[in-house]
Design a protein that fits this description.
343 residues, alpha+beta, four-stranded antiparallel beta sheet, two-stranded parallel sheet, 7% strand, globular
Length: 343
């Protein structure tokens, strides 16, 4: 009997510890959601740096430090960028800050410790550890993906008040800024950090098979406001949550719905909402004996709405042929860079 009681005490203690740890983990996600929601609602100062941090810190179980891992390294780079502008006499250009940022990313220099920022081919298809998909990792390694590289570029730009914008293409993210100095043949400059290129709009449209209607409604090839960027980051919070816990639930639905309040033309958030609705409907049906009721009717309506919303974005639906085109190795990327760069 004594051994049984001892077992129960230890088992019960372990169970309580596990529950407490789960609560701590969820609290980080809830805090991240709350902070970004307050930014969007105008109740908290808008900060993309903070938005990225709280999302990634939740995924990494609180291992990040805002000052050490984000503020300090970003501040150090901003100080270097001002010196880079001065020593190269770029102040004569209205886009001096954008020029400095591109040079900082594209070429080895003292400010980046002679390590330019490159696409992380080594971990391109890593599904075991999503830290390779995080901006905090790119800050440390100068390697990243088509999402982390432009987002880090945007965080540096935010620090020095450079007018650059996140923009989307199907399964891709890049930077846009206004060509105020007439240095390029188009009004807007498209900067691909993945391939270290300035890419013509027509090439991006053709390569990603983007419809003109998708540009008109603001889905692709459109500079996002800071509000839309934070809304996108809130959708990304739902994505890292789903990746970590391998499920869609009330939390992912809440994030997607809040994101869509401020950026409706976001296919990723719509897809997350749709997956969340389907999973919650499955759970309810299993619990109620697979009977139709008011809840199932409501979720059916929401599911139909998600499909209609997705169609309204005029998104480019991925096909095996497009996937093959978009999945490139290092040689393909180098060839692309040499043949399509505007200098």
């Amino acid at each position: 009997m004594r051994h049984l009681l001892t077992y129960l005490i230890f088992w019960g203690g372990g169970f309580l510890t596990s529950v407490a740890q789960d609560m701590i983990v969820m609290n980080r996600y809830e805090q991240a959601y709350q902070e970004m929601s307050e930014m969007l609602d105008g109740k908290r100062e808008m900060s993309l740096k903070r938005a990225v941090f709280v999302a990634e810190n939740a995924y990494l179980d609180g291992e990040l430090d805002f000052e050490k891992d984000f503020c300090k390294p970003i501040r150090t780079v901003s100080e270097y960028l001002y010196r880079l502008i001065d020593v190269n006499h770029w102040n004569k250009y209205k886009t001096a800050k954008q020029i400095a940022l591109c040079n900082f990313f594209f070429y080895p220099c003292s400010g980046n410790e002679q390590k330019k920022f490159v696409y992380d081919f080594d971990n391109e298809y890593s599904n075991e550890d999503w830290r390779y998909q995080l901006v905090s990792q790119t800050i440390k390694t100068h390697k990243g993906q088509c999402r982390t590289l432009p987002w880090l570029f945007k965080l540096y730009a935010e620090e020095i008040d450079a007018k650059v914008y996140i923009a989307h293409a199907p399964r891709h993210c890049f930077i846009m800024y206004k060509d105020e100095d007439d240095l390029f043949p188009e009004d807007w400059v498209n900067v691909s950090l993945s391939s270290q290129q300035y890419q013509p709009t027509i090439w991006i449209k053709d390569f990603f098979e983007i419809k003109d209607s998708a540009i008109v409604v603001g889905t692709y090839l459109t500079p996002l406001t800071d509000v839309q960027a934070v809304a996108t980051q809130l959708g990304d919070l739902a994505m890292v949550y789903a990746e970590k816990f391998k499920k869609y639930d009330e939390f992912t639905l809440k994030c997607a719905e809040k994101s869509l309040e401020y950026f409706l033309m976001n296919p990723n958030a719509i897809i997350i909402k749709g997956k969340s609705v389907v999973e919650l409907l499955k759970q309810h049906l299993k619990a109620n004996g697979f009977r139709k009721d008011a809840y199932t009717n409501m979720m059916d309506v929401q599911n139909d709405q998600c499909w209609a919303m997705l169609q309204a974005t005029h998104w480019t639906q991925e096909t095996p042929e497009l996937r093959k085109r978009w999945t490139q190795n290092a040689n393909d990327m180098n060839q692309l860079k040499n043949s399509n760069t505007i200098r």
